[in-house]
Amino acid sequence: MSINPIVTPIHAQSLSFNHVDSAEVLVAQYGAPLMVLDCDVVRQQYRALQQALPNVDLHYALKPLPHPAVVSALLAEGAYFDLATNGEVDLVNSVGVPSDRTIQTHPIKRVSDIQYALEYGCCVFVVDNINEIDKFVAFKDDVELLVRVSFPNADVLADLSKKFGCKPEHAVALINHAHNLGIRVKGLSFHVGSQTRSGDKYATAISRCADIIEQVTEAGLPALNTLDIGGGFPVQYTADVLPINIFCAPIRDALAQLPDTVRVIAEPGRFIVAPAVTNIASVMGQAERNGKTWYYLDDGIYGSFSGLMFDEAKYQTTSVKQSDELFPAVLAGPTCDSIDVISENIMLPKLNNGDLIVSTMMGAYCSCTATDFNFFKRAEMVVVNEHAFSESAVSA
Ligand SMILES: *Cc1c(COP(=O)(O)O)cnc(C)c1O
């Protein structure tokens, strides 16, 4: 099957991007290595999560893939945004995101970071300790806070509960502290950790937060009206990950127990973007070593595959050239460092220099953590399907 890969970041196009068929055309046009971002997949992921969590306002966390095309595709879908840094404020601002669709969720900020977000118009912030709450005294008439609560989660790719969040039993005291300073706390947030295995982690955290919401009212403090259930929704790097709708079933059940005065929001990052980006690298050279062919690619651990180090994610890698005859091979990155190996043990056809290697599921925590180590340039990001089909049909 051959698909005409009309690829332009500028014009509205609708096509189904097929990475293997399109790889050679794209590399002929843009060179290698490439990261191909398919905004149709971004939209599909957003809609799938919105369907699995109806009545939850999804705030895309920019951290895994801070790209303007992702932001504008999601804005058109009606999404909200979760920001953590001034650079992320700049990005949503440049795309024209209304500031009331954003929250700033970094639990530890400089006063200048708070001012920066406020100048843009973002006025919801996350705190998890007294030192941080005290920074908001100067801004108390302009801000609303969420208190981040920590729920340990050993069973996760990245357990964030050690680094951020107050103990659940300390939440009411923190809210009371803010109240005494005249600072409005409007709700709670948590983040169970990235690529979570089971929705039960959220369900437990939600019911614990429901208790805190009740205690706050019982203590005579202003009622909390917001619960932020964070990110962490898993993607199917491997077959043992639950489909999102099934994964979210216990979350839906737990949310149904909350009072309906509570607005529920979430901060998905990885789930929205991981399947939306495909890497295309090319073979720079090759050598036979210890019975295996080593293929040296123009992208590696210090580039787009940085997630293999930082994120422990699993990507699906294959060659564009297909053959029934496969040989044991090693895929190495371009730098002169020995750890720069993408795959120690992969079966591939006999490849020539210049042949292409395609890896999928590379949208989250890949290009954002890439480096220019050894002066190997990062893969360029090419955007396909930037505008939704219906939009382009209307404008055509
Ligand atoms: C990183 C992060 C997210 C996104 O997490 P994913 O696992 O990518 O969904 C959401 N919220 C906060 C506060 C984060 O730090």
UniProtKB/TrEMBL annotation:
Keyword set includes Nucleotidyltransferase: no
Domain Orn/DAP/Arg decarboxylase 2 N-terminal: 42-274
Top-rank taxon: Bacteria
InterPro entries: Ala_racemase/Decarboxylase_C, De-COase2_CS, De-COase2_N, Orn/DAP/Arg_de-COase, Orn_de-COase, PLP-binding_barrel
Entries under SUPFAM superfamilies matching the protein: Alanine racemase C-terminal domain-like, PLP-binding barrel
PROSITE patterns per record: ODR_DC_2_2
Needed co-factor(s): pyridoxal 5'-phosphate
Keywords per UniProt: Lyase, Pyridoxal phosphate
Name the record gives this protein: Type III PLP-dependent enzyme
Source species: Psychrosphaera algicola
